[in-house]
Design brief:
Layout lengths: L5 H16 L3 H16 L2 H4 L3 E3 L11 H9 L3 E7 L7 E6 L6 E2 L5 E2 L7 E2 L6 E5 L2 E3 L4 E2 L5 H6 L2 H4 L2 E5 L5 E2 L13 E3 L4 E3 L2
Parallel strand pairs: 1-2, 1-7, 7-10, 8-11, 10-12
Antiparallel strand pairs: 2-3, 3-6, 4-5, 8-9, 12-13
Helix pairs in contact: 2-4
């Protein structure tokens, strides 16, 4: 298969971001509620103690209702923080209802960098992963920064389960793939769970 042009990926990214931004507020609220409902009944999440999640931006499905449900179940939630020294890498820090969030350079709210709140990848049970688009074989198209591609590179070694989170409209037939792309074993949308492993 020929190497996909960056242009294809860029055009697809723009198209799907436009689709999810076009959802009405009502559709967004409904999608977030359905996602939270499905997610808490998904066995790996129901059995998990340490869960990495993300706060939604740019029309992404709102993860706050899900986070609230997981907190009620006494789960420990961690959010990604841009690594202060290793450019393009993420750290995951504990997020509680009391955590004060500050926007990072990408304007995404993150917890303060505190070594006591840090969790290593091998201590995580599940990592909920943002994406722009996914296809029917579990390939994921991210925002283009490569943060999650790097984080997911050795997920099997670290023994956490990566699960994509998306609106139904973010599913495409087939994504152009690149050598560094890491397919996901599962994706949760408001209407269903996709699993490939």
């Amino acid at each position: 298969m020929s190497q996909p042009s960056l242009l294809d990926r860029h055009a697809l990214r723009q198209h799907v971001r436009h689709l999810r931004r076009a959802l009405t507020e009502e559709q967004q609220v409904q999608a977030a509620a359905l996602l939270a409902e499905h997610a808490v009944n998904f066995a790996p999440l129901a059995n998990a103690r340490h869960i990495a999640l993300f706060l939604s931006v740019d029309g992404e499905i709102n993860t706050r209702p899900l986070i609230a449900k997981l907190w009620q179940q006494k789960k420990q939630i961690y959010l990604p923080v841009l690594h202060p020294f290793a450019a393009g890498h993420l750290l995951f820090l504990r997020y509680t209802p009391e955590t004060v969030l500050t926007p990072n350079k990408l304007r995404i709210p993150e917890p303060p960098l505190d070594i006591r709140a840090l969790i290593t990848l091998d201590q995580l049970d599940v990592m909920m992963v943002p994406l722009v688009a996914f296809d029917s074989s579990g390939q994921r198209l991210g925002m283009g920064g490569g943060f999650y591609d790097r984080t997911l590179q050795n997920w099997r070694q670290h023994r956490f389960l990566p699960v994509g989170v998306a609106h139904d409209c973010q599913q495409v037939e087939q994504l152009p793939t690149a050598a560094w792309d890491v397919p996901l074993p599962a994706v949760l949308t408001p209407s269903r769970l996709w699993q490939w492993e």
